[in-house]
Amino acid sequence: MQYRTLGRTGLEVSLMSYGSGGPSRLGQGTGLTDAEQEALVRRCLDLGVNLIDSSANYGDSEEILGRCLDGVPRDAFYMATKWSPHADGRVKEDPEDLVRSVDSSLRRLRIDVIDVMQFHGVTPNIYDEVVERHHPTMRRLQESGKIRFVGITEMFFQDPDHSMLTRALTEHPGHWDTVMLKYGILNQYAAKETLPLAAQHDVGVMNMASVRVKLTRPDQLEELMREWRDRELISADALTEANPLDWLVSGAVDSVVSAGYRFAADHPAISTVITGTSRIPNLETNNAALDDPTLPAADKRRLQELFGDLAEGA
Ligand SMILES: NC(=O)c1ccc[n+]([C@@H]2O[C@H](COP(=O)([O-])OP(=O)(O)OC[C@H]3O[C@@H](n4cnc5c(N)ncnc54)[C@H](OP(=O)(O)O)[C@@H]3O)[C@@H](O)[C@H]2O)c1
Fold this sequence. Notes:
By secondary structure, this protein is an alpha/beta fold.
């Protein structure tokens, strides 16, 4: 496992981190038993994963993690979790809601301190209100010792060009120790402005959902490429109709998904790539991909030429 520094937090985090959200939600979405969930989390730790991401909003993920990590030395992992500052499209009014959420997360996770506490899924239209109303409470929680660092995460499909994070890093870089965004083969926008800003201000970047779901589902990938061809965003003869990205599979790159994880890590501003798999074989494959997190230079260049100005959902 490779380790990178999570920006100004100074935490040395595993390049592959584990996410208990996404479609699989630590097996809540794929029907894992308690024992299988425990085996998955233990395999993460065995592989050297030391950063785990959760949220009060991921079903029972925090409780499951609390159970699976019971007895694991606290210095073996860093825990990142989140609180959603909005409900029904409006910013929550009561700052104590965040305090109560942190207390509940600590209880469910069976820990004394959250390493990275994040505002979950902030859209550009509510950013100012979230900062004004709720950021001071994050500082209070830091002073009380319940959380160590403060982060913010985006709502990718509502903000594919990362305008919320670009503003956050331009207007309030001191507020954010970490940001969580989506950067991958089919979502390269962040490389234009957001990732350079994060590097400039020494803000740690957690890369989320980098292969979900088009790279893991060939039918959906083909459909997206068809759509981009029809909209003349890529040229008609740029890629084959079937298995359009299979040219990436060669040598050490054993699948399109592996190529996706390698690309996701191959930027100097990225501190960690979160994988949200619920299957140990997939976890091991993803780990192998991130053990050598680069693509051949010509393939990377071709991906940048093909998709550098595009994003899913844009
Ligand atoms: N706004 C936010 O704050 C936000 C939004 C999204 C995500 N996140 C965080 O980021 C984490 C990562 O996102 P994600 O869960 O979407 O991650 P991801 O790893 O990009 O995608 C997970 C999906 O890919 C599949 N998959 C993973 N490895 C595979 C492989 N080798 N072969 C085939 N399929 C594979 C998984 O299915 P299997 O289970 O079958 O492997 C699952 O359906 C989340 O868990 C969450 O912690 C945060």
